[in-house]
Amino acid sequence: MGVPDKDPREEVIQAWYMDDSDEDQRLPHHRDPKEYVSLDKLAELGVLSWLLDADNYENDEELKKIREERGYSYMDFCEVCPEKLPNYEEKIKNFFEEHLHTDEEIRYCVAGSGYFDVRDHNDLWIRVWVKKGGMIVLPAGIYHRFTLDTDNYIKAMRLFVGEPVWTPYNRPHDDLPARKGYLENFVQKKGGNQAINAAA
């Protein structure tokens, strides 16, 4: 039978269940023993991922194709580090507050790395480590948060359908249509919704 081929995306995107420690948010926060999550399992939560050529993003045909297929007409860059981001400490705290958006959140890491934490079907935290060359899409309505890792630097391309709306809705916002739609599309059809409101 042989060993299945490793998913090439795992070079730049890895995911694992988080511990409950209150230590520095920029640490990996692995459980003991470590409990990794496959990118297929992330896809079941609606989190999509790609491995792209970050050194060639201006001319990357695959990125162009993804943007055309998914309607990502808007693009800009966001650099998150103490030297480049005004009100850095306040912004990092805001990014790490659990929230959702009413649209997809699309981030393509072209330099550095960072953590996107998402809730699974049972409301447990999964930490998604995105490094240079990794692109992820968080679906509208998923509760999530962001932080840098201990390298304290990420440069990310932000994509959006139409004019961007970055409004975060801090938890709880279970009444929003985007949240209800997320639960219908990704949680209830999996039969894993029994604990989804436990921490609301």
From TrEMBL:
UniProt-listed Enzyme Commission number(s): 1.13.11.54, 1.13.11.53
Residues binding Fe(2+): 99, 101, 105, 144
Keyword Oxidoreductase appears in the UniProt entry: yes
First-tier enzyme category under EC: oxidoreductase
GO CC annotations, alphabetized: cytoplasm; nucleus; plasma membrane
Binding site for Ni(2+): 99, 101, 105, 144
GO biological process, one term: L-methionine salvage from methylthioadenosine
Cofactor(s) listed in the protein's UniProt record: Fe(2+); Ni(2+)
Pathway: Amino-acid biosynthesis; L-methionine biosynthesis via salvage pathway; L-methionine from S-methyl-5-thio-alpha-D-ribose 1-phosphate: step 5/6
CDD domains associated with the record: cupin_ARD
Membrane topology: Peripheral membrane protein
Compartments in which it is found: Cell membrane; Cytoplasm; Nucleus
GO molecular function: acireductone dioxygenase (Ni2+-requiring) activity; acireductone dioxygenase [iron(II)-requiring] activity; iron ion binding; nickel cation binding
UniProt entry tagged with the keyword Amino-acid biosynthesis: yes
Cited SUPFAM superfamilies: RmlC-like cupins
Keyword terms: Amino-acid biosynthesis, Cytoplasm, Dioxygenase, Iron, Metal-binding, Methionine biosynthesis, Nickel, Nucleus, Oxidoreductase
Similarity comment: Belongs to the acireductone dioxygenase (ARD) family.
Function: Catalyzes 2 different reactions between oxygen and the acireductone 1,2-dihydroxy-3-keto-5-methylthiopentene (DHK-MTPene) depending upon the metal bound in the active site. Fe-containing acireductone dioxygenase (Fe-ARD) produces formate and 2-keto-4-methylthiobutyrate (KMTB), the alpha-ketoacid precursor of methionine in the methionine recycle pathway. Ni-containing acireductone dioxygenase (Ni-ARD) produces methylthiopropionate, carbon monoxide and formate, and does not lie on the methionine recycle pathway.
Record-given protein name: Acireductone dioxygenase
Organism: Rubroshorea leprosula
